[in-house]
Amino acid sequence: QRPLEWSLIRRLFTYATPARRKLTALSALTAIRAAQLPGLVWIVSLVITGPIATGDVRGLALGVAGYALLALTTDGLFHFRQRYALEIGETVVNGLRAEVFARVQRQPMSFFHRVKLGRIIGRVTSDVEALRVGIQDVLFVSAIQAGQMLFAAAVMAWSDWVLFLVVLGLAPVLWVLNRHFRVRLSHYSRAASDSFSRVTATLAESVNGIRVTQGFVRQETNAGLFRQLLADHSRFNLALARTSAFLTPLLELNSQFFVAILLLFGGWRVFHDAMGIGDLITFFLLANQFFAPIAIIGNQYNQALVAMAGAERVFRLIDTPPD
Prior knowledge:
Helix 5 (about 115-160) packs antiparallel against helix 10. The protein has ten helices and no strands. Helix content is about 90%, strand content about 0%. The radius of gyration is 26 Å and the shape is elongated. The protein has about 325 residues and is an all-alpha fold. The two termini are about 30 Å apart.
């Protein structure tokens, strides 16, 4: 019932040793990009509350130039972040597949009587592919989104700590939602991965043993068994999709609900001269940067569970000792 096992994640990154320098550079680029995204919004708010509010044309030109410079830098760093993430993911996948093949080669013949060929193929193909997606996309995208929330929260707390306390009220609600859906998502992700392994194993064995199947006239029987395996796999995937489809809109609705509360409370403070209209605009722009990653992280969470299920299965095969 532990969806994200950090021991598995640490073990995965031991395969990134050949690309250690790129991993260090990627970690730095991830932190910088997480700060740049709220920085762009902060510059926009400064331009609105500064030069535009006062009619300063020169200040407006300088603000736009600063925004353009930061935007170009952000896109340039995004190129290298994408590139390094893809290269590191490929390095890990290459090392995993090579080790799986080497371990399988050392297994005795009895191992291949116990373990179907399709299950081994499923580990090397679909499970390792899920790990590639988890490393290249899920891990670093989630890190950037979480960093963006932290930087936005820091600027919001510095800008108006009273309104920021309202934002902090979101944390218990998110914790309850995550606790409710975490176990179900974890269960369905592992079940879907395991059912797909059974499908690939049956397919590989059926094609490899087609002479025996036809010799004993078992075509219809085997087809019925395969259809049942497909139905099970479809059922688990649909249950996973339904659960995820409940979680993501709930996160989005929760964010919009808190934005409405901020609008009401912030408007009341402006009416009573507790804060300026420019400060309210700045806070709302940053609040969007804080709430936007929540739905993205919710979507990434589902893929992270699939990657964790794949990691468990791949390492279970690697750690199987020869008889």
